[in-house]
Write a structure and sequence with these properties.
29% strand; 246 residues; single chain; 8 strands; 8-stranded antiparallel sheet; alpha+beta; globular
Length: 246
């Protein structure tokens, strides 16, 4: 009895079918089994892109523990929308490499920011109490900051920040150049006799603008009970946010 000859072409075909049946490579930041978009499919099918995605995911998680997570998330979502305009692997690789380079400087101080004028915004998770259900219901609020250069050493600012139950901070004025990357605004509080002055600092990093409220003194005058100023941050790349210009 003659045994059938297993020809190389048939072997190659069987190998191809087997590879096609195998699941795509797994990227760390999402489940490739659920990949549907052009971007996700390209990442899952390209080892080098999968490695870049894993590296970016690690860097992003590290940064969320070191900085304002809301500002970083807003900036990351904006970058992802830009990344998704890519139509091939080369474009995606360039986008990932540029993003990794940018995130490596996210927290670096920027002592002399060239152009800061505009409207900045950060989506911030919060909650509002529903009296009908007696429950705190999640809602997205937008912190907004407007900056305008008044002179080489002065910045006009205006911001609205939200805390839980829609309590807010609203403040405006002119901040003057201080040390390093900071501009400072000072105001003597007249509500309480002998109360120390409100001292607001606006600092510039490579990735974001940060508001600092020394001793929480500005909060006492300009914020509702469940809102605060200190540590609020705005991604610099997300300039002229439409939600904050309306």
């Amino acid at each position: 009895m003659k045994l059938p000859v297993f020809r190389p072409r048939l072997a190659a075909l069987c190998g191809a079918l087997l590879m096609a049946a195998m699941p795509p490579a797994q990227a760390a930041s999402f489940d490739c089994a659920k990949a549907k978009t052009r971007t996700d499919l390209l990442i899952c099918r390209t080892d080098s892109l999968s490695a870049l995605d894993e590296e970016l995911s690690r860097r992003y998680k590290q940064l969320t523990a070191q900085t304002d997570a809301a500002a970083l998330k807003t900036d990351q979502l904006g970058w992802m929308r830009e990344r998704d305009q890519c139509k091939d692997a080369a474009c995606l690789a360039d986008s990932y490499n540029a993003r990794l380079k940018f995130l490596s400087t996210w927290n670096d101080a920027d002592p002399e920011p060239a152009n800061v004028a505009g409207v900045y915004g950060t989506r911030r998770p919060s909650f509002i109490h529903n009296p009908d259900t007696q429950r705190d219901e999640p809602v997205d609020m937008w912190d907004c900051l407007a900056l305008k250069r008044k002179s080489g050493s002065e910045l006009e600012f205006k911001f609205t920040l939200f805390g839980s139950n829609a309590h807010s901070c609203e403040m405006e004025g002119v901040a003057r150049k201080a040390k390093g990357s900071a501009y400072e605004y000072r105001e003597t509080m007249e509500m309480v006799s002998g109360q120390p002055e409100c001292k607001l600092s606006i600092s510039f990093h490579q990735g974001y603008v940060e508001l600092l409220d020394e001793g929480d003194r500005c909060r006492q005058q300009f914020c509702g009970m469940r809102a605060s100023i200190g540590g609020a941050a705005f991604p610099r790349a997300r300039l002229n946010v439409k939600r904050c210009k309306d």
